[in-house]
Write a structure and sequence with these properties.
- The chain has 155 residues and is mainly alpha-helical.
- The protein has one domain: Four Helix Bundle (Hemerythrin (Met), subunit A).
- Helix content is 59%, strand content 5%.
- The chain has five helices and two strands; from the N terminus they run ββααααα.
- It has a two-stranded antiparallel sheet.
- The radius of gyration is 16 Å and the shape is globular.
Length: 155
């Protein structure tokens, strides 16, 4: 029973979280390795820089050893609601999507477009699992959800 995560009345096997993380890395690697870096353009560069800035800000606020790539909650976790977390609940996922979009803008073809949308879907699945765990773990999380956005501050 240790390999089951309680998620709002539903059970999700921990292996799904690991599988989602593996898919996430494969898709990011696919986008990065199929990029012709000589074709970089200003919009792509701006998305990549925004991605790095957002990730750096989130890591600085969360502190390097306190975040988790698996959709689980570490023991002793505290709810962070300042810095980028004041505006969006999942800035690390948002930064990965910004980077993916930047990579897609460098050179777009059907394979890369499918990879980007698959990345979005994988991150969304991870995010939904994580949101349910956070609701169960933190009594104030529902209030925090009403005060912030999931991935984009204006959407």
């Amino acid at each position: 029973m240790k390999n089951i995560l309680a998620t709002g009345g539903k059970a999700v096997k921990k292996e799904y979280g690991g599988l989602l993380v593996a898919c996430q890395f494969v898709l990011i690697l696919l986008l990065a390795t199929t990029t012709n870096w000589r074709d970089i353009n200003l919009p792509a560069l701006l998305f990549l820089i925004a991605s790095l800035l957002l990730a750096g800000w989130a890591i600085k606020v969360m502190h390097l050893g306190h975040f988790n790539i698996l959709p689980t909650i570490k023991s002793g976790a505290i709810l962070i609601t300042h810095g980028p977390y004041r505006y969006i609940r999942h800035p690390m996922y948002a930064s990965l999507l910004l980077a993916g979009l930047g990579l897609l803008l460098i050179s777009c073809n059907w394979l890369r477009l499918v990879a980007f949308f698959a990345l979005w879907l994988v991150l969304y699945c991870k995010l939904r699992i994580e949101e349910k765990l956070l609701i169960d773990h933190f009594p104030d999380y529902s209030h925090y959800q009403k005060q912030s956005r999931m991935l984009l501050p204006w959407f």
